[in-house]
Design goal:
alpha+beta; Arc Repressor Mutant, subunit A; three-stranded antiparallel beta sheet; 11 helices; about 15% strand
Length: about 290
């Protein structure tokens, strides 16, 4: 299967070009993450397209390498059940309405074998920009590119087309790339909002809570993780999450009058209670509070 990432280099980049008349064409920005937009000269023409076939053709070609696809690829993806005569008519009508909405006679070019969207116009497609920034950020540890990639991801790929089979593979792949970016940049709350079963996200939140002394928060987060993993996947949290939970259960209270452990103190559990071995130094009052 040919995917978006196979053709991301240069496929969505803005370049310099001129039309056949020598005039500089308008810059076009196409968005497919979170919503579909086609902005030409500052005007979003996506709603003006009107016809469903024309809109689907625009979306398909926007994600194709160099915005160009073979006629058979288009037919197989968009109209697999239609007869050959019907398909040709639908394709020509879709191209007509797309040209009319864009106001550009050469916005859709049909040749004998291929169909191209805005072949002579500089176009930026947000998904390709996202791919480039994500790849560079993750490969080179560039926090700026990672932040910019995350900002570009306004939502899943073409969310208004949940049943388009040709979209689903890339939709899931891009969602996985976003999770990788969020995990790398420590955006754990957003990570589990996207995927509540992502254990790394829960563990990251638990670590942060433990560092800040929020032991009850750690335990609540563990309970949430345990519940969602059990409900959705039928499994239990892994060893790292359990270790953080145990640290939260066993850590001494920093309240005045309670005993803080010295580095040589170890904690262990017996008969359902937390006990410790080693020496303690009282802090504050000299009275000993129970463990």
């Amino acid at each position: 299967m040919t995917t978006i990432s196979d053709h991301m280099t240069g496929a969505g980049s803005i370049g310099t070009s001129t039309t056949s008349t020598g005039a500089t064409p308008p810059v076009v920005a196409i968005s497919v993450l979170g919503r579909f937009e086609m902005v030409i000269g500052g005007r979003d023409v996506a709603r003006a397209i009107g016809r469903r076939d024309a809109t689907r053709l625009a979306k398909f070609l926007a994600l194709a390498p160099n915005r160009r696809a073979h006629r058979e690829q288009i037919v197989d993806a968009l109209w697999p059940e239609s007869s050959l005569d019907t398909v040709q008519n639908r394709l020509h009508k879709a191209a007509h309405y797309l040209r009319r909405a864009t106001g550009l006679a050469d916005s859709v070019v049909l040749s004998e074998a291929t169909v191209a969207l805005l072949p002579d116009t500089p176009v930026e497609v947000d998904v390709f920009a996202f791919e480039r920034l994500a790849q560079h950020g993750l490969t080179n540890g560039d926090a700026g590119d990672i932040d910019r990639a995350i900002a570009l991801y306004r939502g899943d790929l073409l969310p208004d087309d949940p049943y388009e089979e040709w979209v689903e593979y890339d939709r899931q792949r891009l969602r996985g790339r976003l999770r990788e970016l969020l995990r790398t940049s420590g955006r754990f709350h957003r990570l589990i909002a996207i995927d509540p079963t992502d254990e790394d996200g829960h563990v990251g939140i638990m670590r942060s809570m433990l560092r800040s002394g929020d032991r009850s928060g750690v335990l609540r987060q563990y309970a949430q993780l345990n519940r969602v993993l059990n409900d959705e996947l039928g499994v239990e949290p892994g060893p790292e999450a359990r270790a953080l939970r145990d640290l939260a259960l066993n850590a001494p209270s920093p309240d005045p009058g309670r005993l803080l452990p010295r580095p040589d103190v170890t904690f262990y559990r017996t008969a359902g209670r937390t006990r410790c071995s080693g020496l303690h130094r009282p802090i504050g009052r000299q009275s000993h509070a129970p463990h």
